[in-house]
Design a protein that fits this description.
- Helices cover about 30% and strands about 35% of the residues.
- The chain contains 4 helices and 7 strands, in the order αβαβαβββββα.
- The strands form 3 sheets. It has a 3-stranded antiparallel sheet, with no helix packed on it. Strands 1-2 form a two-stranded parallel ribbon. A two-stranded antiparallel ribbon has the order 4-7.
- Helix 1 packs parallel to helix 2.
- It starts with 5 loop residues before the first helix and ends in an 8-residue tail after the last helix.
- About 15% of the residues are buried.
Length: about 140
Amino acid sequence: MGPSSPGELAGLGAALGREGMTITTLGLGLDCNEDLMQGLARATDGNHVFVERPDDLVRFFDLEFGEVLSVVAQDADVRIRCEAGVRPVRVLGREADIVGNEVTLSSRKCLRGKRSSCCWSWSCRRARWARSAPSARRP
């Protein structure tokens, strides 16, 4: 039996993504498992679309096949190197590798006109000037 939970399916998606495969998922009808479908698509840099009625499928396929033609880069890496005293902690919304003071984000495809985002947090040593800043005085 194959994966049955959203986490297991996302894990399978991540393994397929490492092999260069992108999976697009389509939720059709009100009883589809959105978490499951979105997890698989997100793990492979694919798209997920919810379609309530079969009549909307044409719009979905137009969008999906149009996207295939707008790929401008594949297997792109973005590296963020932090200065001394700044330590990356975690990245949300995208898989990333954190090694020392460097964060590496990978994208299997970059599309013309489409933005990709994530949120990352870091910790900083307190700056010398922050400790010695004058306090506010009352009049």
